[in-house]
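Worked example 2:
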Amino acid sequence: MAIEILMPALSPTMEEGTLTKWFVKEGDKVEPGDLLAEIETDKATMEFEAVEEGIIEKLLITEGTEGVEVNSAIATLIGEENLIQKKVKDPAVLVTEKLQTSEIPAEQIKNNSNSKSLDRVFISPLARRIAEKEGIDISLITGTGPRGRIIKKDLANLKSTKVNNRSETPNIALANDISPNILDNFPYNSLLEIYADREFTEVLLDGMRKTIASRLSEAKQSIPHFYLRRSVKMENLMDFRQKVNKKLSDQNMKVSINDIIIKACAQALQTHPSANAIWGGNRLIKFKSSDIAVAVSVEGGLFTPVIKDTDQKTISNISSEMKDLASRARAKKLSPSEFQGGSFAISNLGMFGVESFDAIINPPHSAILAVGTSMQKPAILDDGCLGVAVEMELSMSVDHRVIDGVLGAQLLQAIVNNLENPIGLLNI
């Protein structure tokens, strides 16, 4: 009997991926640990290894196929003893598909004269969950997945068709068809009608952009954000950075303001350990060490690689690790363990001249610090006179389920104190 090789879940949030490359061909013998394929997720491109010994009978998915759902069959494997004599009478019905088969009562089939006259429907686990949630009759759907299996896209197409059929007057769709919570239900045909006289280009979404849109839309709707803002006087911080870099010059190293901010946040979480926590549904999960995620811009989106045990590392070590993570993030070579986790994140747009902004919390984090640029501003100086000081604007977005207002204010105060008195962040 053939064994199905399934699309692996290479991260906890992965629902589908792109099979970019096969390392094997039909008839090849493989052993556990042999490379089978290269798979691109929303965050990285990773290699997929064989876990069983056998011979590749058939490659079910061609290279470059996008939207391959997790746990759907991508190839079949047989034992050597079956290579010559094996004849599969019904190759569409294999072990895994039997597990994913939905039995439809005979009475229901009899009543649905326009439905498929089948006694079972093949559907992926993800599509099954969506169909059950939306109350969709899967017996009325034609699957476009491997060997006719119903996949997530088929359900999306069905819902899109229903919306478009309901909207007979495209010009008033703006008022009638927008769901208050799910803006991507806006009818595509209505958009074409509205912008019919404008020149435009359609850009298909890749896995990363789809995930960013989905997760951050959900985060903004489900996480009760509140925002705290403070200014940081930069004189001591800039002087501190200059001295640190002078000391590191013989090692050909330079630390950035962002590296010092990472360390300052890590130390602040140690000062206020109750804030070093995440929401766990019916409980809070508190951490001992400070694991800080840092937003890194990449082509088509962003990564948030995590520097673990940041409170225990020197600023120079943080700088070296951040440079390495950022470089591999832009090449999409990070492993899931390097961009998952953490309780606190930092997003710095100061280098682009942004004065201040509010960031969206990226689950499961409970807070994110938005860092603006350093600017000269009128200020009351230490001698009480009016003068000019260089200040940096910080805005911290906080999950109110985890961190209350007073605790959030104390955490931000600790971050500001660490930045204005950075000598306490040594050793470098």
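The chain has two domains: 3-148, 226-425. Residues 207-222 form the longest helix (16 residues).
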